[in-house]
């Protein structure tokens, strides 16, 4: 998606340790007009797939998922990272390892919001090692719903998550795949 | 907002300890079409206020804020609850006490996304004791931006947050204010 690649080149900042900061438009400050274009592009790519639910994970996936959901006309469910008092009862849960936060956490979805008959699209801002997305895919599987695929805004193609999940037969549509980036020169190479 | 009150009566569940569960349409599964109507209503109420930024807090505020932002044509910034590796450098921060989670946490916004010249609308799903909203208002004040007001989906009018913040001169627009609710009968009384 050219608009997105241009934006990453213009406003993305490459930091030590292969970190790409896109917090001016994607995951801290959020450019909602860009999200609308992202929604249209996912809709185009998953046309005809009869998606009836979008599943994402807190926190930075939620905003994108909600705007994307408008293109599909479906509700969003977000997996929670911590058990709260307000989610009681029956839940699907699995464990996810976060490299960003350096810990393992549970992700949780109430059973009543995901189940047989649902055709689910996963949405997230980043795909790197793939742990979060794998966790979401597992929640879908546990629920008996059908996983249509995953729409990712930025995939770090030099990390193993994308390959790993595609090899499991999951359809991944990433709007920008970064094959390499150079902290010193600021150069970013996108996959064609 | 009648549509919202009707929805709360239809799908809200009253639990022990004055908990109102609205996770089938507001803060776990999210009804995006309802969010669009909420966005139009906030736009109507804050018409002419020249709002150029919406500020919310992770996680459940984000989805509503992003859809509301489409009515205003402005970007959203969400305050983060935990310092992550990916937010370095200059931030505004304050402390918030959460009754739901039973702890005190820091909320953080990068300085580059909030500052003098901004006219900010706060958006959140719930207003109860007002701690989160007060924290957001403090971030706005620290940044030198102007606080236009707060748009709240559901206010628990029997808790002190709304009164407290209004007495500080903050304009609060709540789309549904609950004056009382009864766990046993399921009755909910909305303020006129």
TrEMBL record, chains A, B:
Broad enzyme group: transferase
Pathway the protein acts in: Purine metabolism; XMP biosynthesis via salvage pathway; XMP from xanthine: step 1/1
Coiled coil: none
Keywords (A to Z) from UniProt: Cytoplasm, Glycosyltransferase, Purine salvage, Transferase
Cellular compartment(s): Cytoplasm
UniProt KW Transferase keyword: yes
Binding-site positions, xanthine: 20, 27, 156
Phosphoribosyltransferase domain mapped to chain residues: 43-157
EC number assigned by the record: 2.4.2.22
Subunit structure comment from the entry: Homodimer.
Protein name: Xanthine phosphoribosyltransferase
Organism encoding this protein: Blautia hydrogenotrophica (strain DSM 10507 / JCM 14656 / S5a33)
Gene that this polypeptide is encoded by: xpt
